[in-house]
């Protein structure tokens, strides 16, 4: 079995008063079709399908089939939701899309991730066949990226100065060095429904932004992590103690441990799945390792 992912870009234009046929591509599907006209919304839908490779063609599924399914089944529903309920919950909208999209893909849909901005996304998996909704409650994965600037020095008291320089290189500079860190919490939020339309989730993007700002950004932004924070060794040299090394691995773990209980305390069914921290565009760490993010 393989998983094949396809990204479909499209615009939702307020000037479209009726659901228009978006199944026939235009001239520039790379940038998105339907294309932008006036002041519209630009979205991406990442669709992952699961299946076996045909030994004759080498294909599992023709990517044109995925494109056509998204344009025929998903885009009109998203456009209608934008027009009729622009303040609605994206998780609820995506939940209504999953069934028709899976049907258009003949049961091969594995998951869909809706990128509402380059930094904010909602993801859902298709329910496993044979499991009742009572056993498998629907949920969505909400992700949003944040940034903080901080400096740090990588140095272990358990190694000699020469060993530290050999291991950490420039990152062992005694005065430290800085990064613009990106942080992406991934929160599982329940999506209600029942017999009627899907309901608003109890955990919102605003909740995630408030908690991340208060607990992570305010704590670490424009700080020297070794010198100014308790988590990474503030005052540890004088006290004979050693805080955590401010590596990207430990920063991701600390961010998770700061956010997880605060999200659970809201008691609305949401739970933190993982936190990803990018030290640079080329280096990131996810804690715990259950989820693998995609850098926008």
Briefly characterize the structure.
This protein folds into 2 domains: 2-129, 6-pyruvoyl tetrahydropterin synthase/QueD (Tetrahydropterin Synthase, Chain A, 2-Layer Sandwich), CATH 3.30.479; 144-189 and 201-287, Tetrahydropterin Synthase, Chain A, CATH 3.30.479. It has 7 helices and 10 strands.
Care to describe what's here?
With 296 residues, the protein is of the alpha+beta class. It is built from 7 helices and 10 strands. It folds into 2 domains: 2-129, 6-pyruvoyl tetrahydropterin synthase/QueD (Tetrahydropterin Synthase, Chain A, 2-Layer Sandwich); 144-189 and 201-287, Tetrahydropterin Synthase, Chain A (2-Layer Sandwich), CATH 3.30.479.10. A hairpin with a 2-residue loop joins strand 9 and strand 10 (283-287). Helix 1 (63-84) packs antiparallel against helix 2 (90-104) and helix 4 (205-220) packs across helix 7. The longest helix has 22 residues, at 63-84. The two termini are 27 Å apart. Residues 235-240 and 292-296 have low confidence and may be disordered.
């Amino acid at each position: 079995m393989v998983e094949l992912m396809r990204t479909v870009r499209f615009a939702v234009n307020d000037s479209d008063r009726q659901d228009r046929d978006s199944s026939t591509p235009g001239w520039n599907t790379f940038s998105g079709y339907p294309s932008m006209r006036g002041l519209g919304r630009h979205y991406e839908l990442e669709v992952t399908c699961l299946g076996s490779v045909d030994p004759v063609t080498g294909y599992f599924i023709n990517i044109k089939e995925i494109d056509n399914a998204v344009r025929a089944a998903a885009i009109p529903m998203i456009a209608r939701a934008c027009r009729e309920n622009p303040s609605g919950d994206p998780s609820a909208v995506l939940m209504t899309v999953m069934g028709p999209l899976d049907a258009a893909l003949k049961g091969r849909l594995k998951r869909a991730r809706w990128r509402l901005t380059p930094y904010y996304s909602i993801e859902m998996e298709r329910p496993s066949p044979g499991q009742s909704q009572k056993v498998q409650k629907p949920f969505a994965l909400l992700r949003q990226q944040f940034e903080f600037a901080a400096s740090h020095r990588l140095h272990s008291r358990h190694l000699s100065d020469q060993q530290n320089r050999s291991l950490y290189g420039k990152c062992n500079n005694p005065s430290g060095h800085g990064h613009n860190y990106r942080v992406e919490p991934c929160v599982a939020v329940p999506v209600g429904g029942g017999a009627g339309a899907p309901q608003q989730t109890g955990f919102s993007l605003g909740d995630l932004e408030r908690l991340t700002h208060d607990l992570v950004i305010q704590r670490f932004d424009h700080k020297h992590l070794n010198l100014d924070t308790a988590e990474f060794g503030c005052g540890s040299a004088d006290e004979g103690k050693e805080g955590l090394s401010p590596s990207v691995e430990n920063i991701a773990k600390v961010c998770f441990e700061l956010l997880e209980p605060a999200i659970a305390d809201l008691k609305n069914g949401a739970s933190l799945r993982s936190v990803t921290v990018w030290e640079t565009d080329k280096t990131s760490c996810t804690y715990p390792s259950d989820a693998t993010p995609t850098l926008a």
